[in-house]
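User: I'm putting together notes for a lab meeting next week and I want to include a structural view of one of the chains we've been expressing. I don't have a solved structure, so I'd like a prediction I can at least talk through. The sequence is below, exactly as it appears in our construct file.
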Amino acid sequence: MTDVVQPSLESMIEAAGGAVNLLRQAPLGKFDPPGYPKEYSSWRDEQRAWLNTVALLELSYHMPELHLRGSEVIPFLEEIVVNKLDPFPVLRAKQLVVAGPDGNLIADAIIFHEEEDFYRICGDTDWIYFNVLKSTKDVTATVNPNWYGPQIPRDVFRVQLQGPLAHDLMAELVEGELPSVKFFHIAELSIAGKKVRALRHGMAGSPGFEIYGPWEDQEIVRAAIEQVGQRFGLRKVGALAYGTSSQESSWMPVPLPAVYTHPDLQEYREWLGPYSLAALGSLAGSMTSTDIEDYYIDPIEAGYGGFIDWNREFVGRDALRERFENQRRRKVTLEWNDEDVVSAIAAGFFGEQKGQTLSLPVPHYAFYPSDVVQGPDGSQVGISQWSSFSDNARRVISTAVIDITHAEVGTELVLLWGNPDVQTAHSDAQEVRRIRVTVAPAPYFTKNIRDAD
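Assistant: Thanks for the context. Below is the predicted structure for the 453-residue chain, given as structure tokens.
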């Protein structure tokens, strides 16, 4: 029997006539976390919980992990990540940010230092894994993908408690006294007789904990969380609200990975297969450039400029330094005009010429959404890349990168809504509508994630 040879990302780009054509026809629509219901109560009620009480968010079924082991994990990572890793003691976590040779953003992830020579990375880890396979350092990698079947069992379950009452809930939940846990430190705790670890952080912009432990213990731990949580107004967050959980804090969940063009990344593109997100994720929206590089952002625009360790060499350092010293764009929140949103919703369902459907709570319909933002003279001044209706904001908001000259809070701009270059089944209309938007801060609400230490 002849083995089937899977196409590489590089060969798929060539066959499609370019990366833009490939992604405009890609099958994977907007991010839709699997494994649990769309709603537990209502998505609006669930959104309100992370601002007012406490929300339980599920990460066990969509968050792949890469496990790194060896005595030279940190020296290896320092070659490819932009942020500072030293010092990095056990039971700490850091955000990893990786850029390409051109200084554009490839991915970000969270790394947990679990044991002396064991690190757990959660997020988009393809680029890191590829480099491990090439490295001569003492580092090995094991992939623990987002799969929970018997073939590749999950290592741990993972949930988050987020909101102003998360700390109080945790204090009641754990056995014994809840230790003082600093931001991005990891505590070892016992819940319902089961040993777990908890990272102190704040995904939704409020103090929170990310709890993880052995997969087989999850039901007992979950039951304890829900029982104690009743006294604190706990709401379980379904898949619909989960897709909006990063909007108010302005973290970009899935920026387009800048891997499609640079010659130094050809070997990586030849290694990536047809089931990688870089190959599967659809690109759609009102932006219709044929140059994939127009859709890239860099780590500074994504808000990671303060993380960069300029005191060592890493992939993309020189290009990133030039961008740091000559920043052109800034991450902002855009408030969508209520009347224009209502008009766009109506145009998607009624009338002879239907517009692109504007669904709630997540309006965008592509895995990599890219909508044009125009200035007063009609020229493009930015890209809107992630949008949600926030019941806490009482409006549709989106995260965008905007030319610095138009990025001041209060500036009035126009977002183009629609998909004039329809090539994906996830878009249902070409008509482009103008939605007035106003520049607002990013994060939209003031973050309060370091309290309750």
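A couple of points you could mention at the meeting. Residues 30 and 82 are 28 Å apart (CA to CA). The chain is about 20% helix and 25% strand.

User: Perfect, that's what I needed.
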